[in-house]
# Entry
Amino acid sequence: MSMQSVASPAFTFTPPKRNSLTHIPGDEGWPVIGKTLHVLADPKGQVERAAAKYGLVYRSHLFGETSLTLLGPEANELVLFDQAKLFSSTHGWGRILGLLFPRGLMLLDFEEHRLHRRALSVAFKSGPMKSYLGEMDTGIAARVAQWKAKPGPMLFYPAMKQLTLDLAATSFLGADIGPEVDDITGAFVDMVAASVAVIRKPLPGTAMARGVNGRKRIVAYFSEQIPIRRARGGGDDLFSQLCHATHEDGALLSTQDIVDHMSFLMMAAHDTLTSSLTSFIGALAANPQWQDRLRNEISALGVAAGEPTSIDNLEAMKLTEMAFKEALRMKPPVPSMPRRAVRDFTFKGYAIPAGAMLGVNPLFTHHMPEIWPDPDTFDPMRFTEEAQRGRHRFAWVPFGGGAHMCIGLHFAYMQAKCFARHFLQNLEVSLEPGYTPDWQMWPIPKPRDGLRVTLKPMT
# Structure
């Protein structure tokens, strides 16, 4: 099938007139800025208060546009599974990520998305994943050894951010990337920072300007390297895999496609994993009994501290996976997911017109007490097979769902369990008495103070 025939439909959207949404309950807040500052200050509290007052469908005004919020598992299923192809991810995420990560996989729709996802899936098959594990395992073991040699207080979030960036560079670009690695990783740091900046135009001196310049450096590097990688052949890193990936018609991915996908995948692997692993370790630090339980599971693997981690080791870490899932429940790395309606539809009795901006909210769903009793308590036993059996399949959606389910899901589990294996085998982690971390929950959760922890070597 020719790729030219499956480009995402060129929908032209104008926001529906405000009077076409006034039948939906809500509060649009102040003139011009609406409820934007309220959401930025307390996204979890704001959505919970609005849901208590207006119900699971409500209207607001955010970032310059009237938008709708659809809450709960049924809303997640409607929007994320999207069997009727009612919702555009391109026009949902575009205003947030389009300037810096255009045409990343999450920003493609329908048939074009399917074909690109299929081409990219080659990079997440068994062979490349084993290669990623080897590089990842070596990098994690070395970093944990450094932490063990200098125990005591540390800020965990920035340390994890540097580690995930280094791991993404070696797993995705190859261990022999060379001296330009610092410039490439620096460009990614600037792009990620710009993606969540308040000022959305690249004005001189702003984070967005630095992000746009970072993208220019990334585009130049990948564009130069693609023909070199293709001529060289082989390579198990993700970049080399994509250089040789083909569409269904046998055509290689274009240079622009590879640039866009590499930029997006490295951003996603770096920033969301930093958030997820930080919340995971933060939860273990606050719940030392679970550290002990996971450490016992790791001990039962029979793998000595200096030995490499195997795929079989990771598959045996069932309890560790449950604990990681619970951390993702409490602090999903993507707490809200925007879409734009491409056709009129009805939900919960409300008629919603084409062009409407809307979103679902995993953070809200993950804390609904009728689904998750005592939702603020860390309890990995929520993810036993028996506990999950009676739960709505879209009650837990940290990786999205449907066609746009995170393509790196298994990569995330692999990195989390590999990290837990080395970290818990070598270190104990604790919080200072009386210290409660303060988390910024949007756009990607992170501890405002970096998460102060104390590391102690295992005897």
About this structure: The two ends are 60 Å apart (CA to CA). Residues 28 and 305 are 56 Å apart (CA to CA).
